[in-house]
Amino acid sequence: MKKSVLSIAGITAVAALVLTGCSGSGDESAVADDCTPVVGVETVEEGKLTVALTNTPPYSFEENNEIAGIDSDLVKEFAVQECLEIDYAPYTYATAIPAVEQARVDVALGGFYRTEARAEVVTLSAPLYLDELSVYSTEGYSTVDELTGKTIGTVEGYLWVDDLKALEGTETRVYPDSLSLAQDLKAGRLGAALDGYGAAVVATQGEDYTIEVLKQDDRVSSTNEPSQTAVLFDPSNDGLAEAFNELSVEMREDGRLVDILRKHGLPASAAEVGEARLI
User: Fold this and answer.
1) How far apart are the C-alpha atoms of 18 and 62, rounded to whole Å?
2) What CATH number matches the domain at 16-129+227-271, 3.40.190.10, 1.10.10.10, 3.40.50.970, 3.60.15.10?
């Protein structure tokens, strides 16, 4: 499934190295000499974790010549654990998946949904967090009933589009991207905008809107089972994905995952992924 988000950070055309040293040596250019990997994993290039970075804030983007965002923070923790430098380059969704599939990179980042189609060509990590359907408005709408009789908007490609279009007494306009959606809401042409929570966080920066997760309602099936996200791994390297999954479990249990989500504007509920599933 497509993920559309509003871009807030440019991606440079040149790959860069990011600090992932194991000890507080103060050297941000390389791994400390005394670093000992927790697991010890093989990568495309020895000593480095090569990353396909999509520009999809708040999930992944470049900031101050480093990878940034939710997925990036998780991967940086993993690189520290495994004494790996991060070597990243900018990719689109269309180019990141084949790069992983063909083992040209170790991992791809970008709030990727766990889909059956992707699972056939790459290794999906365990579910990391939910991309919950959210509503942003000046009124703070949070239920389907509150949207009845209004003109609302969302972004094409999401699972919930057809359900929203089928709501009785409600006009649903579908936009090609989150930026267009946010602009029409600001212009007063919409009563509310519905998007993934992360996209809503980016779209509402500097604006006086309230973001609410749309409450469960059978009329919009995505409210009952939000999409799970994953990072994508080289399908020929099972050990790499397994080691990352072990770390992600630890980070969920000790609260580090929730801290990362909150840092980037997502609610703690996004960490409650439930059983792994594909869409």
Assistant:
1) 11
2) 3.40.190.10
pTM of the model: 0.81
Separation between Cα atoms, residue 181 and residue 194, nearest integer Å: 9
**What DSSP string runs through 213-273?**
EPPPBTTBGGGTSPEEEEEEE-TT-HHHHHHHHHHHHHHHHTTHHHHHHHHTT--GGGG--
CATH class of 133-223: alpha beta
Please give the span between the terminal C-alpha atoms of the chain, in angstroms, as a whole number. Answer: 8
For 172-223, what is each residue's pLDDT tens digit? 999 988 889 999 999 999 999 999 999 999 999 999 999 999 999 999 999 9
User: The tokens of 179 are what?
Assistant: 């930026």
